[in-house]
Design a protein that fits this description.
Elements: E1 5-14, E2 17-27, E3 32-36, H1 43-51, E4 58-63, E5 66-67, H2 73-78, E6 81-84, H3 96-102, H4 116-119, H5 124-141, H6 157-169, E7 175-179, H7 187-202, E8 206-210, H8 214-220, E9 223-228, E10 231-236, H9 238-242, H10 245-264
Parallel strand pairs: 3-8, 3-9, 6-7, 7-8
Antiparallel strand pairs: 1-2, 1-4, 4-5, 9-10
Helix pairs in contact: 3-6, 5-6, 8-10
Bound molecules: adenosine-5'-triphosphate and magnesium ion (MG).
């Protein structure tokens, strides 16, 4: 089956640092792809390049065959590309619900015309109600249904990350880039995020999942791409990656490998 998302020869330098260096990565429909590697290996930069927050120095990014390179972030989102951030990028002064309503900017794609709010005022009530309904049910799905009226600044760090996830999910993305979605979460929150990712896969969506929580990555991901110094040093199933000598040297190490083995039993 052809790839939903495909990045080829992706490169980005910051001065002397080659943050991403000729990276090839592709996601099949319904695939959860892990993206792992040491700190500074280029995971977040890869996500910024694919989602449009950074321009690549070289390489091509395609979503369902369409080249994204010249498209702005919001155009990519409208095509079904969602993302979450390593550090939650929520509006602290806004309510939890308003934060998710803001995330509705890409909903156009699924039939609700945000433009109607401005150009067809008679339709605005219907549009608003539909966005509201969508936002409320998304907040319920991430476990923040009872915090809708609170300001985002009153949420814990983990809850702010879940709010960031709700902002991405409200547009019903077909491909979701998740940058360390489990970092800073408690075990109940982690289980919730993992369940949401599995649900996306069931619906045919694809996820690029950058994470340092190795046991969860091994359990959840269909395939894993491993980065080191911006280049791909390995790609394969969790079983293959856990035994890959270069990955063990660069990232997993013996201790983590034993932890993963214990987790599998
Ligand atoms: N805006 C920037 N300006 C300069 N250097 C940057 C910038 N963003 C990233 N880098 C550098 O690029 C490299 C890759 O960083 P990146 O944040 O992509 O790594 P990462 O794999 O996400 O790391 P972590 O696991 O710590 O989140 C690092 O050397 C980092 O210092
Ligand atoms: Mg990062």
């Amino acid at each position: 089956m052809s790839a939903t998302l495909e990045a080829t020869g992706l490169s980005k330098r910051f001065g002397a640092v080659a943050a991403v260096d000729g990276l090839d990565v592709a996601l099949a429909p319904g695939e959860i792809r892990g993206l792992i590697g040491p700190n500074g290996s280029g995971k977040s930069t890869t996500m910024h390049l694919i989602s449009g927050y950074l321009r690549p120095d070289a390489g091509t990014i395609r979503l369902n065959g369409q080249v994204l390179n010249r498209l702005a972030v919001h155009r990519r989102a409208a095509l079904g590309l969602g993302r979450t951030f390593q550090t939650p990028a929520v509006f602290l002064q806004l309510s939890v619900l308003d934060n998710v309503l803001v995330g509705c900017h890409a909903v156009d794609r699924v039939g609700t015309r945000v433009g109607d709010l401005f150009f067809r005022p008679w339709a605005s009530k219907r549009v608003f109600n539909s966005l509201l309904e969508r936002s409320v049910s998304t907040l319920d799905s991430v476990g923040l249904g009872d915090r809708m009226a609170d300001r985002a600044e009153d949420l814990s760090y983990g809850q702010q990350k879940l709010l960031g996830l709700a902002q991405a999910l409200v547009s019903d993305p077909r491909v979701l880039l998740m940058d360390e979605p489990l970092a800073g979460l408690g075990s109940v929150e982690m289980d919730r995020v993992i369940a949401i990712v599995k649900d996306l896969r069931l619906k045919g969506g694809s996820v690029l999942f950058a994470e340092h929580n190795v046991p969860e990555v091994m359990q959840l991901c269909d395939r894993i791409t491993v980065l080191n110094f911006g280049t791909r040093i390995a790609e394969g199933t969790p079983g293959e990656i856990q035994r890959h000598p270069e990955v063990l040297d660069a990232y997993l190490g013996r201790e983590d490998r034993e932890e993963v083995d214990a987790h599998d039993q």
